[in-house]
Amino acid sequence: MQFVTGMIVRSKQGRDNGKFYVVLSADKTSALLYDADKRTIKQPKKKNLRHLAPTKTVLSAEMLGSDSEIRRTLAEFQRKATISKEVI
Questions:
Q1: Do strands 45-48 and 52-58 pair parallel, antiparallel, or not at all (unpaired)?
Q2: Terminus of the chain with fewer CB atoms < 10 Å: N or C?
Q3: If you average pLDDT over residues 65-79, what whole number do you get?
Q4: pLDDT at 62
Q5: Whether the predicted pLDDT of 40 surpasses 80
Q6: What average pLDDT does the segment 7-12 reach?
Q7: Residue 12 has pLDDT above 90, yes or no
Q8: Is residue 1 part of a domain?
Q9: What residues contact residue 34 under an 8 Å CB cut-off, 6+ apart?
Q10: For residue 34, what pLDDT band results from cuts at 50, 70 and 90?
Q11: Is residue 75 part of a domain?
């Protein structure tokens, strides 16, 4: 799957396993990610693409400009993922 700017992804490996991020940019092997909380646009996290699970959600360019909107959206994804784990 192609990783594009604005796509919401979930970390599959590492200390941040299960955390959701927004893709800032991506190349063939890695992506720069941010969550508008710990990782900002100025200090994104670099992560190997093999350690990311893409979602079908891609945020619009207007949403990417607002940190509060990014935090709210990612918190909703995290809440849904937590509920799904509890049901299983």
A1: unpaired
A2: C
A3: 87
A4: 83
A5: yes
A6: 95
A7: yes
A8: no
A9: 21, 22, 24, 40, 41, 43, 44, 45, 70
A10: very high
A11: yes
Rounded (5°) CA angle 51-53-54: 135
- Residue 46 domain-assigned? yes
Look at residue 87 in the predicted model and tell me its pLDDT: 53
Q: Residue 7 to residues 69, 81, 86, 87, 88: CA-CA distances in angstroms?
A: 14, 17, 25, 26, 26
Q: What is the tally of structural domains in the chain?
A: 1
Residues contacting 55, CB < 8 A, separation 6+: 7, 8, 9, 10, 20, 77
Residue position matching structure tokens 């891609």: 58
Q: Find where tokens 């979602």 sit.
A: 55
Please check whether residue 24 is in contact with residue 44, taking contact to mean a CB–CB distance below 8 angstroms. yes
pLDDT confidence tier of residue 81, bands split at 50, 70 and 90: confident
Number of other residues whose CB lies within 10 A of the CB of residue 58:
14
* Amino acid of residue 42: K
